Amino acid sequence: MDYQVNYINPEIKLSCYEGRLFKTEAAFDDHLLVWLISGETKIIQADKSFVFGVGSTFLIPRNQLVTILNYPKDGLPHKAVAMHLSTKRLRDFYNEDHVKSKFQTEKIISFEKHPLLKSCLASLIPYFEMQENFPENIASLKINEAVNILRTIDKNIDAVLNNFEEPGKIDLKTFMEKNFMFNMSLEKFGYLTGRSLTTFKRDFQKVFNSTPQRWLTKKRLELAHYELSEKNKKPVDFYYEIGFENLSHFSFAFKKQYGYAPTELLNNFTQSKF
User: Fold this and answer.
1) Mean per-residue pLDDT pooled into runs of 10, the chain (274 residues)
2) Are 175 and 192 in contact, with CB atoms under 8 Å apart?
3) In the chain, what are the helix, strand and coil shares in percent, each to the nearest 5?
4) What is the DSSP letter of 61?
5) How many domains is the chain built from?
6) What is the pLDDT of residue 23?
7) Phi, psi torsion values for 24, nearest 5 degrees
8) For residue 147, which of 51, 57, 82, 85 sits 20 to 30 Å off, Cα-Cα?
């Protein structure tokens, strides 16, 4: 089996992937703290991207749209320990009496290869080999240890972890123009813009004079056309970064929209250079 994930409790897991590429698109409900044991991870956001190598530790803030591409590398599988820092855990950690933050960040936070974090997350490895249930009190201790280390090495992390606000209603046009390439459900897009599904669809029709699905497909194909005609990129190199799940679906949608296959446009671009 190419992909395996082993949970020692619902908030702590070890994943291992041996295929060519594993892709995830998400806006996590929890902050996700990741330590990369082997392989490489590329994280794509609307206006920036990050590449993490062996030994890297990074935090993906909750409710941030990301495309995650995990690659095996140097003959080794992609292997990582991930810890969910849930709102419930963090509320308990910070205590109700602690002043809550309203600070929000959209960026991935990198801690480089910090020895304290590496030691904390590496200490979880033996527990993945246990057959019995991972004791809840030990899970709490390990998560609290990780949070305390984050607070020690990053003086600004409290502003991120101690923010428990849900997304408020924001400008729909700005958000969608920035994030159309993420293949999220309409319910998730609605939540991230502070709307119910019904309100999201209604507001979307008013703003764009189109249904969300038609508009999203059109925007993604326009971006694909630009990547092909202006940047001379091959479809296989970008289709998963613009919201398509597989190459055949992308090729079918592209030909339906433009009347010719993406390879034809790419061939014409190549011939025009000679």
Assistant:
1) 82 90 90 96 92 95 93 94 94 75 76 89 87 80 95 93 91 95 94 96 97 95 90 86 88 92 74 50
2) yes
3) 45, 20, 35
4) -
5) 2
6) 86
7) -135, 135
8) 51
Query: Cα(25)–Cα(42) distance, rounded to whole angstroms?
Result: 12
Place of tokens 């609290």: 144
- Report whether 119 contacts 111 (CB < 8 A): no
Tokens of 72: 């095996």
User: Could you tell me where the beta strands, DSSP code E, fall in the chain?
Assistant: 3-9, 12-17, 22-26, 31-38, 40-44, 49-52, 57-60, 66-71, 78-85, 109-110
Cross-strand pairs, 83? 12, 33
Task: Give the model confidence (pLDDT) of 188-203 as tens digits.
Answer: 999 999 999 999 999 9
- Contact assessment for residue 178 and residue 223, using Cβ atoms and an 8 Å cutoff: no
Count of beta carbons in the 10 Å neighbourhood of residue 135: 13
130 and 8: one domain?
Answer: yes
pTM of the model: 0.86
pLDDT digits (tens, 9 = 90+) for 207-240: 999 999 999 999 999 999 998 888 888 888 888 8
Length of the chain: 274
d(CA 23, CA 38): 16
> What pLDDT was estimated at residue 38?
96
Q: Supply 204's token pair.
A: 């979307």
Same domain, 237 and 140: no
Which residues does residue 73 pair with via DSSP β-bridges, in sequence order?
76
**211 & 147 share domain:** no
Residue 166 lies in a domain: no
- How far apart CA 99 and CA 70 sit, in angstroms, is 37
Give the residue numbers spanning the domain of 226.
172-272
∠ CA 203-62-148 to the nearest 5 degrees?
155
